Amino acid sequence: MKFIKMHGAGNDYVYVDCFSQPVPENLPELARDISHRHFGVGADGLILVRPSEVADARMQMFNADGSESEMCGNGIRCVAKLVHDHGIAVKDRLKIESGAGVLDLQLSVGQDGKVDRVTVDMGAPILNAPDIPTTLAPSGPVINVPFMVTLPTNHHLGNAKMTVEATCVSMGNPHCVIFVDRATDELVLELGPLIENDARFPRRVNVEFVEIISPTEVRQRTWERGSGETWACGTGASAVCVAGVLTGKTERRILNHLLGGDLILDWDAETEHVMMTGPATEVFQGEWGMS
Ligand SMILES: N[C@@H](CCC[C@H](N)C(=O)O)C(=O)O
């Protein structure tokens, strides 16, 4: 199986072009094996680029633990680059089908004729609690809702309880945004997995810890459902843009600094759609097979 390793702001996936070869079998198992940082290629997950009946291509994505997600913001920018640079559809506007519907993408082509940046119309956020889904409210939006987490008994702080404020947004996939003074390792690496797997999120959740730098600039660290800490999350950055406006902390257009690079987000007041702009990079190509 031929593959292409790509990343968007350091959020790295193994991409498989299923226009030129058959769709591989046992996808959850393949995602786990190929994503392994020591025994595989190493990635945050696996993304298939498949033919679509309604768009230029269809993206199907799996996290590193083999679970399938509806949508990947950094991934869809790389899918657009792959579709353009590898000759599947050489256009500067593309439609890509995902679990969150068919999205419109505007490609920016560098001097070498290859795509270097992509703007994605991420669509309108979903704010109704049962649709996110979360049980933090019976219905309606979840904004700054106190959320108590009990640390495990073997934790160095003991069986302590911590309360954070959760603002929940779905961008096709579920996100819990928590504004903090400092996004420390302790918060991201210890609270992240507890919140991801909390019963109040019936389909688990992606967790964003966000520092406000100014009303137009934030810094984000992400604990992703199914992959752990990643260096960026495009749907998460979009959810943060929406959460910042809902909580009155930021304006509609923000610059978001993530561990692996920057994204620009704009929650359009007229369309209610979130526009996300960021880089897409091809790292290398390879072949995966049993020898
Ligand atoms: N990194 C992605 C999101 C990938 C899927 C996520 N872990 C989930 O399970 O929903 C992004 O850039 O959006």
TrEMBL record:
The active site is at C72, C233. GO terms for biological process: lysine biosynthetic process via diaminopimelate. One of its GO terms (cellular component) is cytosol. Keywords: Amino-acid biosynthesis, Cytoplasm, Isomerase, Lysine biosynthesis. It comes from the Bacteria. Pfam families: DAP_epimerase. The record marks H175, E224 as: Could be important to modulate the pK values of the two catalytic cysteine residues. Pathway: Amino-acid biosynthesis; L-lysine biosynthesis via DAP pathway; DL-2,6-diaminopimelate from LL-2,6-diaminopimelate: step 1/1. SUPFAM superfamilies: Diaminopimelate epimerase-like. It is found in: Cytoplasm. Substrate binds at N11, N63, G73, N74, N173, N206, E224, R225, G234, T235. Its EC number is 5.1.1.7. Its main location: cytoplasm. Homodimer. This is Diaminopimelate epimerase.
